[in-house]
TrEMBL record:
Name of the protein this chain belongs to: Uncharacterized conserved protein
Pfam families: GFA
Provenance organism: Tropicimonas sediminicola
Gene3D superfamilies in UniProt: glutathione-dependent formaldehyde- activating enzyme (gfa) (3.90.1590.10)
Similarity section: Belongs to the Gfa family.
GO molecular function annotation: carbon-sulfur lyase activity; metal ion binding
SUPFAM superfamilies given in the database record: Mss4-like
């Protein structure tokens, strides 16, 4: 049975997206950039770039030479992360419509996590 098309969007509804292929690599990022932009930890999943259709005025921020972060210029919702040398895009799990049926597979950049919390869910952690 084929996975249904997933949809999502920002808080104000100005930016929406559709993902036509299965999401993978479900992770929680603890790096300092994700913590600053999201306010804590950023949870996301990847899809092939060609399978994601974005509508609305996404603003892209070059957080580093190799990656961009996409957000809504009106409400500020942090929706996308993309490595420029890859043909995938990560979408925010919190921005997906409805139940996801997904489960966290890994924690990444744990060396950059805040000192105000512990990661104690038993999910694998990458430094």
């Amino acid at each position: 049975m084929a996975e249904p098309v997933r949809t999502g969007g920002c808080l104000c509804g100005g930016v929406t997206y559709r993902v036509a292929e299965p999401l993978s690599s479900v992770s929680a990022c603890h790096c300092s950039q994700c913590r600053r932009q999201s306010g804590h930890v950023w949870a996301s999943a990847q899809a092939p770039l060609a399978a994601v259709e974005i509508s609305g005025p996404v603003r892209w921020y070059a957080a580093s030479e190799g990656a961009r972060r996409g957000f809504c210029p009106d409400c500020g919702s942090f929706l996308f992360w993309r490595a420029l040398d890859e043909e995938t895009i990560s979408v925010s799990l919190g921005s997906l419509d409805g139940a996801t049926g997904l489960r966290l597979e890994k924690h990444i950049f744990c060396g950059g996590k805040g000192d105000y919390y512990e990661i104690a869910d038993g999910v694998p952690q990458e430094p």
